[in-house]
Automatic annotation (TrEMBL):
Protein name: Branched-chain-amino-acid aminotransferase
Physiological role: Acts on leucine, isoleucine and valine.
Family to which this protein belongs: Belongs to the class-IV pyridoxal-phosphate-dependent aminotransferase family.
GO cellular component, one term: cytosol
Organism, as annotated: Venatoribacter cucullus
Coiled coil: none
Catalytic reaction equation(s): L-valine + 2-oxoglutarate = 3-methyl-2-oxobutanoate + L-glutamate; L-leucine + 2-oxoglutarate = 4-methyl-2-oxopentanoate + L-glutamate; L-isoleucine + 2-oxoglutarate = (S)-3-methyl-2-oxopentanoate + L-glutamate
One biological process term in Gene Ontology: aspartate biosynthetic process
Keyword presence, Membrane: no
Amino acid sequence: MSDRDGLIWLDGELVDWREAKVHVLTHTLHYGMGVFEGVRAYETPQGAAIFRLQEHTDRLFNSAKILGMKMPFSKDEINEAQRAAVRENNLNSAYLRPMVFFGSEGMGLRAENLKVHVMVAAWEWPAYMGEEAKTQGIKIRTSSFTRHHVNITMCKAKANGNYINSMLALREAIDSGCEEALLLDPEGYVAEGSGENFFIVRDGVIYTPELTACLDGITRRTIIEMAKSLGYEVREKRITRDEVYIADEAFFTGTAAEVLPIRMLDGRAIGIGSRGPVTEKLQTMYFDQVTGKAPYKPEWLTLVK
Ligand code: PMP
């Protein structure tokens, strides 16, 4: 990944991909105190466009604020950096990774007098789990790893260190023959996937966990709004794992995962055991939006040129 042509935006400048390096004493590398975003640009009839750019930038700034990291750039500058990262790499579609991290000026937990750096990289990243997963759904398991407690780490922050938990859960799921993990919160209620929000459908009503232990996903917000516009009732509430076993449909949402049907949890088929009709409708509406084919909200797309 580090050895390729292209440009990465680093601290206000586009630098050669191979030269976008940091020192081994980079503070964030040692303690995981940093924040990041996962953003996507799609090929649209008007050209490459970033989906919900402003919302991702807002969340990045909120994450930094929660961790007490002072952003050295304005939101407009970070929006422009993301547009440039796609445009200057001549990408039609892309996954974008903005990250805010501490420099190598000092070590220790006081984290004083450290420079705050910002980088934005963009590269082509096709469907997260392949095309078949999008239509057939994926097999998941309840994780033995609990999602973060709201007072152990900050769940509203998309913080680097939070992802150790995600990676442990995902590795366990993959090693046991599943494609993704379902993490429960410290009280035992369903929280989210390793990098996705979670929804179920039962008797025509859509349910999703409240925003406590799970990330305030931008795809989650999008799907809630779209579902309501289609006339569905959407309820945010505590969900138990056995409620999922007997749901008609289940799916994940996320920038990388998009709208991903779940066909099985803990060896039990969900509903018909493949993508359900409500999931399909929302998935279609989502792809029509992000690709600019039939956008529900055209203003959610920002052209890079
Ligand atoms: N939960 C977690 C833990 C995530 O990492 C992500 C991906 N950012 C999501 C949910 C989904 O968020 P979004 O829809 O904003 O990508």
